[in-house]
Amino acid sequence: MHVDRQHTVLPHDRDLRTGLRPRVLRGAAVCAFSLAFGLAGQSVAQADDPWDRSGGQSQGNWGDRGAAPAPAPAPAPAAAPAPAPAAAPAGDLTGKPTGTSTAYSAWAPHVRPVVAEVVAGFGVSTVYTRPGHSPTQQLAADFMVYSDGAKGNAVAQYVIDNAARMKVDYVIYKQRIFMIGGSGWKAMEDRGSPTANHMDHVHVSFNP
Q1: 49: which residues sit within 8 A by CB, 6+ positions away?
Q2: Quick check: pTM over 0.85?
Q3: In what residue span(s) does the ARB-07466-like C-terminal domain sit (predicted)?
Q4: Residues with Cβ < 8 Å from 68, sequence gap 6 or more?
Q5: CA angle at residue 102 from 96 to 156, to 5 degrees?
Q6: Order of all β-strands in the sheet with 140-144
C-alpha cells in the first residue's frame, strides 16, 4: 500500500499560522525597541555622569573621551618694590647720623636730609665725608655697607631712582660708576684696595 509522505495542511493549521505571524512580528519589534532604548539610556547616563554611584570616579579612560584642556599658565609674579625708607627727620639736623658717622654739619644743608633718609631707611651704621677730600667735600657721602652687598646694591639703586629729588650727580659702588643722565654703570680702573675701589661703601656725589 502506498503512503503519501507529504504533510497535508489542514484548514485549521493554516489559520493558526496566519494568526501567529503578526504576533511574532509585533513581539520581535517590541523586544528590539526595548533593547535599543535601554542601550541609549545607558550611553546617556555614562556621558552625563563621569562619577560612579559609589561616589568615586568611573573607571573609564579619560584619554578615550578627549584630553581636558590644560589650564592657562599663571602670570609671573610682579617684582617686589624696593623697601620704603623711613621719612627723614624734620627740622634742622644737628649732631651725627650715627655715633660712628661724620657730623651733619660737614654736609651741605640739602645733603643732610638725604643722609638721614638713607641711614633710617636702610640701617646704614656709618656715613663719612672727609674734609679736604675734594673741592666739593660737603657734597659727597660714603655710606659704609662693608661686606653686605645686598644692602649696598639697594642703597645705590635707591639714590639713583631718586636722583632728581636728591640732586644726585653720580654714584660709585663696587669699582663701577653711574653718572645720572648717562647710559648706566661703567667699570672703573683698579685703585688697589677694596676701600679705594668702593667695594665696602656706596659713594654718592651731589650737585650744589
Answers
A1: 58
A2: no
A3: 110-199
A4: 62
A5: 100
A6: 126-128, 140-144, 201-206, 168-173, 176-179, 185-187
